[in-house]
Specification:
Helices cover 30% and strands 25% of the residues. The protein has 21 helices and 34 strands. Strand 7 and strand 8 form a beta hairpin. The longest helix is centred in the first third of the chain and has 28 residues. The protein is globular, with a radius of gyration of 28 Å.
């Protein structure tokens, strides 16, 4: 538990700090050094310059680097500062890392739209989007230090070298630490505008690519790491909401007087879709919530039955008119007319819940005059770095100070601001008392924002030699990019391709789920390839090898995965291997080995092998951990997890009826081989998860001759497939 009244504002931190600040702009360090003892100059600099990161060097040699990304277990708290420190030749043991302020204009990385800047820890984009900025800035910081040492010693800068936070002059055998250089630092008139070729050769890296312990792990191990749910403040009160089970339904409270009379209840705050309660303690708030008597309206979700809707989706897929066209290459219709054989298969996936470990929560304190607010939250941030709070309170964004905390799991759910906005609504009514809002697990399961249910209809054509000449992919479901992403086959040489999205909305709350559309759509694509290979009498590796002939990096992952999994070796009795290729930033081919209990329908995954090309890998051990976590999360969603909806209402409520993978279900081994590369780093957090469904389905097809086409692969569905 943490009690705090600390003002974490950047300006106060700067005012109270010694040393010097190196301001890093879009093109690197700005041509100015400012003593941290001069707050007026710092304030002026902050007002004038588009800063993207801030680094402080103290006289004791301590280097403080702000981390602009959320830390939810993926290691960004280490990888970004490590990149800077590498080019700076810093002593990593002297580097401290802190969360940056949530100000995209200052600390954002290049966004998806030209000229935009984002602080958005999603899509495995963090290391990739900050890599060049941090390298260049680190190199320029090193130049400032060397230039200052050259003037101090009155020697040419060309005679100097750096290592481990020291500047060396070999001819005179002198060296000086970065900390000792602080009194002599001065900014050169110009700074080198380093090109990539002028930065370190990856072969010279001392930190990048090495197994460096993550900076936040010790605090997480000893319990001192602060998550939002740990925040305790003087006079803090608690809020909960009853949102019901029917998404979009409007409540009418019928026993308000009774609730207000309950012990500790301070206020009832109605929302369009919920009834909010604020009480002195969390227990009192939850007790009052259980006593609410609410009449709920109908909503768009009324009548929706998730297991019956697929028949409707099939009809939508069969309609003549096109949906929203995503890809159109060549002429699929013409290729189909001249094909030797055409295949058409439907693949399906049910709703999936995020199941993040830390329940959704936030603390918001609104000033008594309503003119400013402080927010403590674990967030994946977003296009609005103030998380919707300014709009709720009707104040300027600069009047809202967001204190980012560690996240106890995100997976896309914490890139949604609903829980922060709800807390702001309650806090506005209770100002100036700090309000802590907590979603219970039941709240989050029943009123979650799920990975969409969808149907994918795939049609493929082959010529007389078995070559795939056309590939068509129709996605039916709600959510746009949530269901329709990842339909491209950029690494497969198929001359005629078509992909579309056909909308089918049912009023269910939806959100990005780890890897977004890659999970369902790569399941469909990769499973389809194996079904074609089986029918054509081809080895799945040989089929992909031919398709990847023009994509050498993808092909290299295929060859390596086949090698490390001993693909061509005879399988153990009652076991089979399946393969899948996925691109999600990084490129990866995965192979799994499974067995099936034909009496229970339970699939057991024994081994998983992955060959990964992620470009330059900043933290190899962490990348392997990401792949392992991705595989296990993928297995959980593929073999266990399922949200079902009857008459618009979610049927699951907690982990007793929303099943997750258990310890006894994990593979005997997960082996990841990282291919050497000098390309820019790519994300790895969402590469492993999508390959699981297709690899398991393909292994099942090889083992039994039966396809699995509906996620999750529950024992009932497996038995149905076996008996079909």
């Amino acid at each position: 538990m943490i009690s705090t009244k600390t003002d974490f504002s950047r300006r106060k931190f700067l005012k109270s700090s010694s040393g010097v600040a190196l301001f890093i702009g879009v093109a690197g360090i700005l041509p100015q050094l400012i003593s941290c003892k001069d707050p007026n100059k710092i304030k002026k600099q902050l007002a004038q310059q588009p800063i993207t990161a801030w680094v402080k060097l103290s006289e004791d040699g301590l280097i403080t680097i702000y981390n602009p990304a959320a830390e939810m277990g993926q290691g960004s708290m280490t990888s970004l500062p490590l990149i800077f420190a590498e080019e700076m030749d810093a002593d990593w043991s002297m580097v401290k890392v802190k969360f940056s302020p949530q100000e995209s204009e200052t600390y954002g990385s290049p966004g998806w739209a030209p000229g935009s800047k984002l602080m958005f820890t999603v899509g495995s984009r963090t290391t990739n989007s900050y890599y060049n900025v941090m390298r260049k800035a680190g190199a320029q910081a090193r130049y400032v230090l060397m230039n200052s040492a050259a003037k101090h010693w009155e020697v040419p800068i060309s005679e100097l070298t750096t290592s481990n936070s020291y500047v060396h002059h070999g001819k005179t055998n002198q060296k000086i630490s970065y900390g000792d250089l602080v009194p002599f630092l001065e900014m050169p008139e110009t700074l080198p505008d380093y090109s990539e070729a002028q930065l370190k050769n990856p072969k010279e890296f001392q930190l990048i690519g090495k197994d460096i312990p993550r900076t936040e792990i010790p605090a997480k191990v000893d319990g001192s790491a602060i998550f939002a749910i740990d925040i305790r403040m003087p006079e803090m009160i608690y809020g909960v909401l009853e949102r019901g089970k029917l998404h979009g339904s409007k409540p009418s409270l019928t026993n308000e007087a009774e609730i207000l009379a309950m012990e500790g209840v301070l206020r009832i705050i109605p929302l369009d879709y919920a009834i909010g309660i604020v009480a002195k303690t969390l227990e009192q708030a939850l007790n009052a919530k259980q006593s609410l008597k609410i009449d709920w309206s109908e909503s768009k979700a009324s009548g929706h039955n998730s297991q019956e809707v697929y028949a409707t989706y099939e009809k939508i897929a069969s309609q003549n008119e096109k949906g929203k066209v995503i890809i159109e290459i060549g002429d699929v219709a013409k290729a189909r007319r001249t094909a030797a054989k055409t295949y058409e298969v439907d693949y399906k996936n049910d709703y999936v819940y995020h199941a993040q470990m830390e329940p959704l929560n936030a603390v918001v304190q609104v000033a008594e005059d309503g003119g400013s607010a402080e927010v403590w939250v674990g967030s994946q941030q977003g296009t609005d770095t103030k998380l919707g709070v300014p709009k709720i309170l009707g104040i300027a964004p600069e009047k809202v100070n967001v204190h980012l905390q560690y996240l106890g799991g995100g997976f896309g759910r914490r890139s949604m601001n609903d829980f922060v906005e709800e807390c702001a609504i309650l806090a506005k009514e209770m100002a100036p008392l700090p309000v802590k809002l907590i979603w219970t697990r039941e709240d989050d399961v029943t009123y979650g924002a799920f990975r969409p249910l969808s149907l994918q209809r795939l049609t493929a054509s082959t010529d007389a030699e078995g070559n795939i000449t056309a590939f068509s992919h129709s996605v039916v479901g709600d959510g746009g990019n949530l269901v329709a992403s990842a339909v491209a086959n950029d690494h497969y040489d198929i001359p005629n391709q078509f992909a579309e999205w056909r909308e089918a909305s049912n009023g269910i709350r939806l959100k990005h789920w780890r890897a977004v559309g890659h999970g369902p759509n790569k399941f469909a694509i990769e499973s389809m390839l194996d079904e074609i290979a089986r029918d054509q009498g081809l080895d799945p590796v040989d089929l992909r090898r031919k398709l990847m002939a023009k994509s050498p990096r993808a092909l290299a992952t295929l060859e390596k995965a086949a090698k490390i999994s001993n693909w061509n070796s005879p399988p153990l009795e009652d076991r089979a291997k399946g393969m899948a290729f996925v691109e999600h930033g990084s490129l990866g081919t995965g192979v799994c080995e499974i067995s099936v209990d034909r009496s229970t329908g339970i699939i057991k995954v024994h081994h998983f092998w992955i060959a990964l090309d992620a470009g330059v890998v900043v933290q190899p051990d962490n990348v392997k951990a990401q792949m392992e976590g991705g595989i296990i999360m993928g297995m959980s969603s593929v073999l266990k997890e399922q949200i079902t909806i009857v008459d618009g209402q979610v049927q699951q409520s907690n982990y007793h009826d929303y099943q997750l993978l258990r310890m006894q279900d994990i593979p005997d081994s997960i082996e990841t081989i990282i291919l050497e590369s000098s390309e820019i780093p790519e994300g790895v957090g969402e590469t492993a998860t999508p390959m699981v469904a297709c690899a398991i389905a393909n292994a099942f097809l090889k083992l039994t001759g039966k396809p699995l086409r509906h996620l999750p692969f529950s024992p009932e569905r497996v038995l149905q497939a076996l008996n079909s």
